[in-house]
Amino acid sequence: MNPFPPIAIRAGQLIDGVSPEPLQDVVILIEEDRISCVGGCRVPPTGAHVIDLAAYTVLPGLIDSHTHMCFAPGDGKNPVLTKSIPFRALQGAAAARATLHAGFTTARDMDSEGAGYADVAVRDAIRDGLIPGPQLFVSTMALSITGGHMNHVGLAPEIDARLPQFAAIADTTDEMIRAVRQQVKYGADWIKVYVTSNLKQVGPTTLEPISQFSEAQLSAVVVEARRWRRDVAAHAYGGEGAKAAVRAGVRSIEHGMLLDEEALRLMVEHGVYWCPTFANMRPTHALAGYPDNFVHRVMANHREVFRKALALGVKIVFGTDAGRVVPGTNAEEFDLMVQAGMEPMRAIQAATSVAAELLRRDDQIGAVRRGYQADLVAVAGNPLDDVKVLQDVRFVMKAGTIVKQPDGSAGSLSSASVPESRALCAQEQA
Ligand SMILES: [Zn+2]
């Protein structure tokens, strides 16, 4: 018998991340870091530590599939030139704490943005319990080309050539393969490739982005990444670059606001996930400084692509580009997805079970199911009526440990630290 008593959470409403409808008045048992029972006990068993969330909606811990923990918005300065990598790791620690407190118990960090392997340090410090934060899947330095996305601009060539870059610059297939090996060697869980360049290089009238790599080069990256059991994420606004990436076998397309219907159909055919990152595609963020006409066309196109993707059945995951938007405000993306035409339940699943599939962890996280990791959050009110309530997460449990409670206190209670014994789930006793 487990020497530690369970934690019993009494949930007024449960959205389990998978089921199409919510459940009412459910007791969830937690033993150590796992969910041991859902709904099998009408009343909490004797000896359990009871957490009363009868006035709340309980959900799986949320997953943000596109963050940059080590990048901080704000002062407008180039961080590669003005901040040390140790400082950026500490920024990553602060971002990780804010992200966890906002209810995100897992994040796929989509590159350190020139902070080298600081994302690996943040991931490992969280894993080792040194700092609070979500479980992270990191991608270190993304691959890009000379003159492409995430290069410095406006510097004298003599200076630029001597500087560290935002990305791992690779122009040939051999260089790309070497870059993949290097990322894996130093701790990357994912490989990220900038397959199209930035908005400044999008055709102002055609809205056609520049492709950065050939399909053959992207295939070589995917094959090399698979050899190391890693998946590839493609930063792609649209155009031929996005289609080449899908055909080459990447697992996800990031941003995609200029994807055409052919690309969306290819994504369905190849089972590729789309992470739209609406939160960063607002005039107040990445698009600041562009002519209004261009911005509004790109944003309108983004919403139109989203509607088509929903209709075609593209697998859509929730991702914010947090780091480029303020860490901890991640849940604003839910409202943007719903405004763009997604049902609240599907938006929640995009941040839970569908994101877990993307990460190949759908047997561990993203659902409130027996045997799953005890990652849970709770909000006041019903997010199916008003998805904005997810912006005010009141309770957070990560792997069985409470990190935030409804009274506002931060806790560290886990089933392993509750000083009573006994009690198993009634369902298991039966
Ligand atoms: Zn990003």
Written account of the structure:
This protein is of the alpha/beta class and 430 residues long. It is built from 13 helices and 17 strands. It has a 7-stranded mixed sheet, with no helix packed on it. β16 and β17 form a beta hairpin. α2 packs across α3 and α5 packs parallel to α6. It is globular and about 70 Å long. The two termini are 15 Å apart. Zinc ion binds next to loops. The site of zinc ion has 4 residues, from loops.
Set down the secondary structure blueprint.
Blueprint: E1 7-14, E2 23-31, E3 34-38, E4 49-60, E5 62-67, H1 79-82, H2 85-101, E6 104-109, H3 118-127, E7 135-138, E8 143-144, H4 157-160, E9 168-169, H5 173-185, E10 190-194, H6 215-227, E11 231-238, H7 239-248, E12 252-258, H8 261-270, E13 273-275, H9 292-312, E14 315-316, H10 332-339, H11 344-350, H12 353-358, E15 376-380, E16 393-398, E17 401-404, H13 426-429
Zinc ion binds at residues 66, 68, 110, 321.
* Top CATH class of the largest domain: Alpha Beta
Structural class: alpha/beta
Mean pLDDT across every amino acid position: 91
Count of helical stretches: 13
What's the quaternary structure here? single chain
Q: Name the CATH homologous superfamily of the largest domain.
A: Metal-dependent hydrolases
Fraction of residues in H or I helices: 25-40%
The tally of beta strands, per DSSP, is: 17
Briefly summarize what is shown.
By secondary structure, the protein is of the alpha/beta class.
Name its key features.
430 residues, alpha/beta, Urease, subunit C, domain 1, TIM Barrel, five-stranded parallel beta sheet, disordered C terminus, binds zinc ion
